[in-house]
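fwd from M.: "can u put these together and see what the complex looks like"

so here's what she sent:
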Amino acid sequence: MHELIRSNKRRSALLIASFVVVVGLVGGAFGLAIGNGIAATIVALVFAAVLAFTSYWKADKIALAVSRAKPADPQQYARLHNLVEGLCLASGLPKPGVYVVEDPAPNAFATGRNPQHAAIAVTTGLLEKLNRVELEGVVAHELSHIRNYDILVSTLAVTMVGAVALLSDMAIRTMWWNGGRVARRGDHNNSSNPLALVGFALLIIAPLAAKAMQAAVSRQRETLADVSACQMTRYPPGLISALEKLQADTTVTHSASTATAHLWIEQPLSGVGDGGKLRATHRMFSTHPPLEERIALLREL
Amino acid sequence: MLILIIVLAVLALLVIYLIAAYNGLIRRRNQIENSWAQIDVQLKRRLDLIPNLVETVKGYAAHEKETLDAVITARNAAVAAPNTPHAQAEADNALTGTLRQLFALGEAYPDLKANQNFLALQEELTATEGRVAYARQFYNDSVLSYNNKLQQIPTVIFAKMMNFDRREYFEADEAARTAPNVSF
């Protein structure tokens, strides 16, 4: 397990490093568009760093506020609090903040930056539809995200994706006005700059690549969290039957937005799981592996 | 001169390695002690809940004296049990058995089963039993992590010199492995 966490942390560092490279490249391409490569690269990197830093300190509060999560009352939600405390004992984690989201769709998510500053939120639908062992499996899954530092990586990653998207958008809009050419005073033959074309292609690909990368890492983390949840409860059938209930349930989680989609235990947005021609593309950008695959994997434990 | 620098560098690295390995072992050993204390905390919490539960049941089923007395006796035995893992586990198992019978009373007395206090206590006790199990699980995980570190090369070479010993796992004894019988 500790080896898995270590490799997870390594992968997270790699992820952040590659995001920095992508942000740098986008900044460079932006620079080609406006005629000053180095300055724009630096600006882009500073921009990404500021965003990453803000999300490091504030992302959990933002995620909870966006999802309209309220602190769970220890009296009213005694069972939930008890389950969280028990599993924290099993994993040696400090007890995270416990929140409830008023939503009939069964779902849950974890957020924060480290085990000392973490929170988990579940919907009222989850509390109603799952029994004790199933709820325990879901809570263990969320606590695994906290223990494996997935919460930090996903919040950082999401900000980075946002930064890349914003930068390329700005760059493309700038190029709209000078046609992808860099014309300066003294540039008599007015030829188009081939590098600017490369930059243009990069600007189009970068946000997509960033999103696909983030989705790939997120999918891996979901599977890992499922497995370590079972290591925590020592009872895979609980989580299996919870996932089956989530699969059978078709209510869309209204409290989730595209920005927080990757945080939840089940992909909360509709239209991603359907088959057809777009299935392969959808799979590339979906933040969760299909529930059937997750259930099949757990059955092998 | 160059050789001296190399020798010094190697020595410095060795010292740094030893400090890191020693601290790693200490951290794991302290975690074992902390998780052992956690088991005690949860067992005690469970004992504290029982008088309340007995009082609540008395209000509805006072004539079930036998069951109530059995719980009280088992609880007092658990309080008085010597502070060794084996004796505590044994007293704890006896208590679990009598508690099962007490909760079974809820089936015979609908009023009791509908009592909010009874339900809340039942939830608390179920949760605490789960917590005891989880605390033991975490204790064993901590022992595993410590023993692994201790017995691996190269730690194993110097661990003996620094007085680090292998730790024992918490093991459920024969009585605990078979689920307690509930007789009506």
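replying to her w this: Confidence is low (pLDDT under 50) at residues 271-278 of chain A.
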